[in-house]
Write a structure and sequence with these properties.
The complex is a heterotrimer of chains A (573), B (285) and C (463). Chain B has 285 residues and is mainly beta. Chain B has helices spanning 23-26, 31-36, and strands spanning 2-8, 16-17, 38-41, 44-47, 52-58, 66-71, 77-78, 88-92, 107-110, 126-129, 152-155, 168-174, 188-193, 197-199, 209-212, 216-218, 224-230, 233-234, 237-238, 242-248, 256-261. Chain C is an alpha/beta fold. Chain C has 2 domains: 63-133 and 307-401 and 425-446, Rossmann fold; 135-302, 3-Layer(aba) Sandwich (Dimethylsulfoxide Reductase, domain 2). In chain C, helix 3 packs across helix 13 (309-320), helix 4 (135-144) packs across helix 12 (279-292) and helix 9 runs parallel beside helix 12 (279-292). The chains are: A alpha/beta (573), B mainly beta (285), C alpha/beta (463).
């Protein structure tokens, strides 16, 4: 089928299109530069047209999601809706059910989400959930930062072996890239401990975070992976952690990025996730302040680093992360119900409900730090819009964050009307930042930049040949001032006029009109098969002895990934 | 004032769900509106007039001006008074699950027994049950740590397990006996029990008060005895008589108050013991 | 001659091939190291399984349901063909008002998917054995929290294991042998000798016999006992000399031991979930484990009894947001204790059609519940005759998951395992997944979908 979206105002930063009136054409599932006269016309005159949203980091599918849903029926009941002819009943606010997740992203005009953490032992579970989420393409990131084998290779500086291991494990778990969470810390949590700072070692394994992270970064580049290492640094949420964050980023500076074509989409060698949680100064929550200026400055001077913000939305939400010791600390602070899951030889996860109150000084500080980061990082290509869903807030708040970024008056109103605590003014520079994002910037941080950072070659842009993943929003940018109308901005971005996924219209006027099964994006390194086999053989005695499942049952079978988008990455290019 | 009378014609073994017919929804309704309404029963709907003869008299401009009278055994009619913000509901018979749940105002009277979840998550208004209630009276939703936040629940008969669980405000008065774990996890509000309590009231309570006029079976270790108090004043109300007062639940550093009738619970008093600081001398009583 | 003669069974040598690394389809240990020795499409021997797991396979043909049946007017079950049986079952479901689909814990998640689609369509209540088993654990977890770990973590790190209200030696025979106590872990290379095992149970069970310490608190004394432990952890001196039958000195000693463990794990079972305080027992056990994390490192795991009971809860959670007792009758998911659980529904005599799949309520439900089951149409989808077959009006013989049919299950600690197929099913049986799909398609032809909202209505609480 051919379509032509006529007369929209197009924002396609990857192609330098900034608010130009032009037609966008697609045929079947691909964007094309011309169509026949039979093409169906969709009149989007003067409305915003962008590529569909790309979320580079959210927790939407996997074991800890289920722990969250199992233990928070009060969150599930919050979002319940009745089924319709097209949609199943929804449930959940901060932890939506799988169908709900697909519908809500779709309504916002999103088409791709990166599932930020997948434990290889339970990867099948992640994939079962991905298969239950409609309308999205999902790229799961397997966890490597606390894996016992990874720690051994890192300590011994066996980069080639580590690379073969990562390649093999991405195949086994059907994962997309290399995710690192609180390296060495979640292993220390196996004994109820944590690591502090970048040069602290994991007990018994006697390897530091620095060693693990730099080794993985080297392996990542050796493998020519489309995405860089994706790191959640140590000391998340601790006042004074800015130092650890910058140390972590600095340690990657001299690692050369792969020059292979498969790695050429991105510029970075390290993507730092939910930077907001890693940008605090001070020594405790009484004297805590914002480290955002320092972190932003670092990114401004170092193009090899990208990040996503993890913006706090001031909601009651659920935190869930592989940084298990941090979750326990939150439990000690709040006393709310805490959940934890340690996974043998690989990683750990923790969860706890969190109420981010605008009346609370610390929560306001967190909210302000996130906005400061957005507004102080000069190049929108280096920064992505996320809330580390659901940790800093549910993903349905992305439109609200967009409205904040586009309206300095709104931000000032929140500060001056005391909608938020006065720490916003006193402990951060937010009140002095009057920069406003425009639609082009928004298109960059919610589509073009995440796609480039993740290394996708087929989305995040309206280039002919790319997927027909397109969103249309009910705003006429030439007659509309987002700075004065934050509510309209939020409303429009919450309910896309059209969401098109692989050329199929899935949302119209903010309602789901059709659904399609999701795809799973995973990376298949080729040319390293012998090394991978050798590594596996070497690991086998360990595996047999210390894992509680058999090797034959460990992998993710092909049928768990019925709709793969397999990204082949040859070792020699 | 509009009076809507439901006279029962027949019962159903599969419960009717009345959540769509609270005073807020029906204060403008006429008999014709009811004649058109199909009530959910299981996965289906049936005309409500198959089950009730409904008469409407008078006018109302708001839920506050509505009086709903239900005559018959509502033992299979769930959600009576659900989420109402005003008005009166009188049930002349038993009520099923969730009577008065999530109500924020008004008055619900059950001249009979109620089932589980009576008054669940109330925030205001008054719920009065002349008979007995079952589990989770005035409790929270499973998983929620915030329960009833306001209003008043009065049970003339006995209350089931976990009455007032997660109480976060408001008052509950049980005139009969209370089953185990009353006031578990409460953080605010008062539970008064005239009758006996078999075991473990106030488990993991953080704050709030429980007053027991009858005999308490078993007390949790998490409660520290402070001695005997006379005519204590709790949240502006004076409770005449002598009570053994406890603070707890220590297991969570709770500062809640538990008061049990001193006469009836003499066996709980710790004797004055030389050299044993934590036991407090009581003097004559 | 006298003397004791050990019975000796010579190893089976007459087999065609071995299917390795199969998964046991019995308890929640889901041991995935089973080898099936196959001859002529029959399993003639099993290696590595415990008695429970082995018996299910070796005794399978005894009491095996092989042919669809419908109960005639004379009250007897009569054999019939698949179409007739499926049509009859579909008719019952299509015209029901309060259908309950119960069981699921011994079938695959692939089958659950079809069953849920049917349940969502017709507006049924979907529930599983958790409702009579670890439901209180799930409820407690919903109130208190859930600090758990995979079984391999226990093997590698744990130096103190506590079984409370669980007689693992009888209910999960390889739990101690393969996972928790005997194996040589990475940090526990001496295996059993590197661990302290404590059983807390009113009964001196077989597990207690194998433990280093047995604490026999009195029946129904669980909550008070755990509360005392928590009070001691907070530094309080105990008032009573004896709490729930245990002298306070023993409690002090136990607490010291637990605090000084490097990695402790509490495994608990129905002894906790079904005594007086039910879910509040688990609630407080969870809280106790959380308290212990202040001084030490502790986790817990409910000893799930079936190989996919956890799988159903996980599956329902990611599909609907709720773990069990999910009422879809109004076109959206509801979960409410006392209202949407099977036993409560049956005791209130509400269900008018009951489908039991991969479960045996006839054997396990309280009498009051079964009395109602005897009065309503019951559809059974199972592989074995059981008390539920006596209650069933339509019997649909399924296939043996993990032996005759592959499928996904979730172990008690949430680890997903794809159970492989080793032999073909009997020609007259069908895969559970196929049966559910057929039912679903037939029901859809018989009745228009109820409770479909004409348009999407957002929930303001989710905005």
């Amino acid at each position: 089928m051919e379509y032509i979206l006529k007369n929209g105002i197009v924002y396609d930063p990857a192609n330098g299109v900034n608010g130009e009136k032009k037609d966008v054409m697609f045929k079947d599932d691909i964007i094309v530069d011309s169509v026949s006269d039979n093409a169906k016309v969709i009149d989007v005159t003067d409305k915003i047209v962008m590529p569909a949203g790309v979320d580079p980091h959210a927790h939407v599918a996997g074991p800890k999601l289920v722990v969250g849903r199992l233990y928070r029926p009060e969150d599930s009941r919050r979002g319940v809706t009745q089924k319709t002819a097209i949609e199943r009943g929804e449930s959940g606010f901060s932890i939506p059910s799988c169908p709900t997740t697909g519908y809500r992203y779709s309504r916002m005009g999103y088409g791709t989400v990166c599932e930020a953490a997948m434990p290889p032992l339970e990867a099948k579970h992640t994939h079962e959930e991905i298969n239950t989420i409609p309308n999205l393409d999902i790229a799961p990131l397997p966890l490597f930062g606390n894996n016992w084998m990874v720690m051994e290779y890192a300590r011994e500086n066996r980069i080639d072996d580590l690379a073969a291991f990562c390649a093999a494990w991405m195949k086994i778990s059907k994962g997309y890239g290399i995710k690192i969470v609180n390296p060495c810390g979640s292993e220390a949590w196996g004994w109820g401990m944590n690591v502090h700072g970048y040069d602290d070692s994991a007990p018994y394994f006697d390897v530091t975070s620095r060693q693990v992270v730099t080794a993985l970064a080297k392996a990542n580049e050796k493998l020519n992976l489309p995405h860089s290492i994706h790191i959640h640094p140590n000391d998340l949420g601790h006042p004074g952690n800015t130092g650890t964050t910058l140390e972590t980023l600095k340690s990657i500076k001299d690692i050369k990025k792969s020059t292979a074509p498969t790695a050429s989409k991105r510029d970075q060698t390290v993507h730092c996730t939910h930077m907001q949680f890693h940008s605090y100064t001070g020594t405790n929550w009484k004297d805590a302040g914002s480290g955002a200026p320092e972190v932003a400055k670092f990114l401004n001077h170092n193009k090899y680093v990208t990040g996503d913000v993890g913006q706090v939305t001031l909601d009651e939400t659920t935190t869930m992360t592989a940084d298990a010791p941090m979750e326990y600390d939150l439990y000690r602070l709040s006393g709310l119900k805490w959940a934890n899951k340690d996974i043998e030889c690989e990683t750990a996860a923790g969860l706890i409900p969190c109420i981010y109150s605008p009346k609370n000084p610390v929560n306001t500080l967190q909210w302000a730090v996130g906005l400061e980061l957005f507004l102080s990082i000069d190049d929108p290509w280096q920064v992505c819009l996320t809330t580390d869903h659901p940790n800093a807030g549910p993903f349905i708040r992305y439109p609200r964050i967009i409205s904040w970024l586009m309206s300095s008056p709104r931000r000032m109103e929140m500060i001056e009307n005391r909608e938020v605590h006065k720490w916003a003014e006193k402990r951060t520079t937010l009140a002095t930042l009057d920069r406003e994002y425009d639609f082009n910037d928004i298109a960059t941080i919610t589509r073009a930049a995440p796609a480039r950072i993740d290394g996708y070659t087929d989305r995040g842009e309206l280039t002919p040949g790319c997927k027909a993943d397109i969103a249309v929003y009910d705003i006429k940018p030439n007659e509309f001032d987002p700075s004065k109308n934050p509510e309209e901005v939020e409303k429009a971005f919450s309910r896309a006029l059209y969401t098109i996924k692989d050329g199929q219209i899935v949302v119209k006027d903010g309602e789901i009109v059709s659904t399609k099964p999701s795809h799973t994006i995973w990376t298949n390194v080729t040319g390293l098969e012998d090394e991978e086999a050798r590594i596996i053989e070497e690991i086998m005695p360990f595996f047999r002895q210390y894992y509680s499942v058999k090797w034959n049952n460990y992998k993710v079978h092909d049928h768990f990934v019925p709709n793969p988008i397999r990204v082949d990455v040859p070792i020699r290019q | 004032m509009k009076t809507i009378t439901f006279d029962q014609i027949k019962t159903s073994s599969i419960a009717l769900e009345l959540d769509e017919l609270n005073t807020d929804a029906i204060y403008t309704w006429t008999e014709d509106d009811f004649a058109k309404y199909n009530v959910p029963i299981g996965n289906s709907r049936f005309p409500i007039t198959d089950y009730f003869k409904i008469t409407v008299e008078g006018e109302a401009n708001s839920p506050d001006e509505v009086k709903m009278i239900m005559n018959g055994d509502m033992g299979r009619v769930k959600y009576i008074g659900f989420r109402m913000s005003g008005g009166e509901v009188i049930v002349n018979g038993n009520a099923d699950l969730h009577v008065g749940a999530e109500m924020s105002g008004g008055y619900v009277l059950v001249n009979g027994n109620a089932q589980a979840h009576a008054g669940r998550e109330m925030s205001g208004g008054k719920l009065e049950i002349m008979g007995n209630t079952k589990e989770f009276t005035g409790a929270s939703y499973i998983g929620e740590w915030r329960g009833v936040t306001g209003g008043e629940i009065i049970v003339h008969g006995n209350a089931g397990k976990q009455c007032g669980e997660c109480l976060t405000g408001g008052n509950i008065h049980v005139m009969g006996d209370c089953d185990i774990l009353a006031g578990i996890h409460m953080t605010k509000g008062t539970i008064e029990i005239d009758g006996n309590v078999n075991r473990w009231p106030g488990g993991q309570m953080k704050n709030g008060n429980i007053v027991i006029h009858g005999k308490l079976g078993r007390l949790l270790e998490g409660f520290v005895e402070n001695g005997i108090v006379t005519d204590p004043e709790i949240s502006g109300k004076v409770y005449p008589g002598k009570y053994i007062q406890y603070t707890g639940d220590i297991a969570i550093n709770g500062k809640g108050g538990l008061y049990i009738d001193a006469e009836k619970n003499r066996d709980k008093l710790s004797a004055y013991s030389e050299g044993n600081d934590e036991y407090i001398s009581l003097g004559d009583y | 001659m006298g003397g004791i003669r050990m019975s000796y069974e010579p190893p089976i040598t007459d087999y065609d091939h071995i299917v390795e690394d199969c998964t046991c389809a019995f308890c929640g240990c889901n041991c995935d190291d089973l080898d099936y020795l196959v001859k002529d499409n029959k399993v003639v021997a099993v290696r590595h399984a415990c008695r429970l797991g082995a018996s299910k396979i070796m005794e399978d043909i005894d009491q095996r349901l092989l042919v669809p049946m419908i109960r005639g007017d004379d009250g007897e079950l009569e054999e019939t063909d698949w179409d007739t049986a499926l049509d009859k079952a579909a008719e019952l479901i299509a015209h029901s008002i309060r259908p309950v689909f119960y069981g699921w814990s011994e079938t695959s998640t692939e089958c659950m998917k079809e069953g849920l689609e049917l349940g969502e369509y017709i507006g049924a209540v979907l529930d599983n054995q958790a409702t009579i088993c670890h439901g209180p654990s799930l409820q407690a977890m919903q109130n208190a929290g859930y600090p758990i770990q995979t079984l391999g973590e226990v093997t590698n790190r744990a130096d103190m294991i506590v079984y409370s209200g669980s007689n693992a030696m009888n209910s999960h025979p390889r739990h101690m042998a393969r996972y928790a106590v005997f194996p040589r872990g990475y940090f526990r290379k001496r295996g059993r000798f590197d661990r302290t095992v404590v059983t807390m149970d009113p009964k001196f069970s077989d597990t207690a016999k194998m433990s280093d310490k047995w604490i026999g608190f009195e029946q129904n004394g669980d909550y008070g006992f755990y509360n005392a432990i928590r009070a001691v952890l907070k530094g309080k001196k105990l008032h009573a000399d004896v709490i729930s039958g245990i002298p306070k000195e023993d409690i002090y000693e136990l607490v010291e031991q637990m605090k000084s463990a490097e990695f402790g794990v509490l495994f608990f079972g129905l002894g906790l979930t079904h005594t007086l305080s039910k879910q509040r027992n688990i609630d407080i056990a969870i809280k106790m484990v959380m308290d212990l994390n202040k001084d030490s490192k502790w986790g817990l795991t409910p000893m799930r009894g079936h190989f996919n009971v956890n799988g159903f809860n996980i599956f329902m959670a990611f599909e609907t947001g709720f773990a069990f007792g999910v009422d879809l009758s109004r076109g959206y998911a509801r979960y409410m204790l006392g209202e949407t659980n099977t036993i409560d529904l049956l005791t209130r005599k509400e269900p008018d059609v009951f489908m039991v799949i991969a479960a045996d309520p006839g054997a396990h439900f309280p009498n009051g519940a079964n009395q109602h089951l005897a009065n309503i149409p019951v559809i059974q989808c199972d592989i074995h005759w059981g008390p539920s077959t006596e209650l069933a009006d339509v019997v649909l013989p399924g296939s043996f998951i993990a032996v005759e049919c592959a499928g996904t299950s979730y172990r008690m600690d949430g680890v997903p395992i794809y159970m492989r197929k080793a032999i073909d099913k009997p020609a007259t049986c069908r895969d559970d997944e196929w049966i559910m799909r057929e039912l679903k398609e037939r029901v859809m032809k018989l009745r228009e979908e109820p409770n479909v909202a004409p348009k999407y209505v957002p929930n303001p609480a989710a905005e």
